[in-house]
Write a sequence for this structure.
């Protein structure tokens, strides 16, 4: 998960840890485990479309955190 070019692993870890559980879990499954949206949706008992939204919102929060904004 490359959010910003100069992001350290520590900063990224801090940003991810500040996410709500569902966003954190979906991002971990997608980018660390390389699961498909369909597989994540099944695991989280939701739709693939909702999974995409959850991940998108999580990434926006991570970017905001790394740019110095609020979580």
């Amino acid at each position: 998960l490359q959010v910003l070019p100069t992001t350290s692993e520590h900063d990224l870890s801090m940003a991810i840890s500040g996410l709500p559980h569902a966003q954190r879990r979906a991002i971990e499954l997608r980018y660390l485990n390389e699961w498909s949206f369909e597989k994540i949706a099944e695991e989280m008992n939701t739709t693939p479309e909702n999974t995409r939204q959850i991940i998108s919102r999580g990434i926006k929060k991570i970017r905001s955190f790394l740019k110095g904004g609020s979580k």
